[in-house]
Amino acid sequence: MQTWEEMLITKILTQAVEDARYTGLRKRYLQHKIEAINWIMSGDPQFKYYCKLLNIEPNYIKNKIKTHGDTKITSNQKVLLKPIVDKLLKSKKYQDNWFAKHVEERI
């Protein structure tokens, strides 16, 4: 049985995976999609820590996202994401990380 802390962390990781798989066109959720993909794929220390607390290998989630998660960005999403991505890339938080190196070229 999980403690309440483990349940909370499980919900956070689950929400990140769900956000990364978002297929709609709402700008707010598209920003969540980009942030979730970056959080998982960049090896963020917080992501790794949460995985460690649940005894989950971070690469397990990364590989599931890559192989089974629908994280592709549709052509309709690309149009809406361009200004969001431009804004995020200007922030220090996203400079020189996985997001900047992989997602930008797909948009």
Task: Give an overview in words.
The protein is built from six helices and no strands. The protein is mainly α. The longest helix is centred in the first third of the chain and has 17 residues. The radius of gyration is 14 Å and the shape is globular. The protein has one domain. The model has no long low-confidence stretch (mean pLDDT 84).
Brief rundown of the structure:
By secondary structure, the protein is mostly helical. The protein has helices at residues 4-20, 27-41, 45-53, 58-68, 75-90, 98-102. Helix 1 (4-20) packs across helix 3 (45-53) and helix 2 crosses helix 5 (75-90).
Structural class determined from secondary elements:
mainly alpha
How many strands appear in the DSSP assignment? 0
Regions with little confidence, pLDDT below 50 for 5+ residues: none
Largest sheet: none
Percent helix, as a range, is: 55-70%
What is the typical, i.e. mean, pLDDT?
A: 84
Strand content: under 5%
For the record, the count of structural domains works out to: 1
> So how many helices?
6
Can you tag this structure with a few keywords?
107 residues; mainly alpha
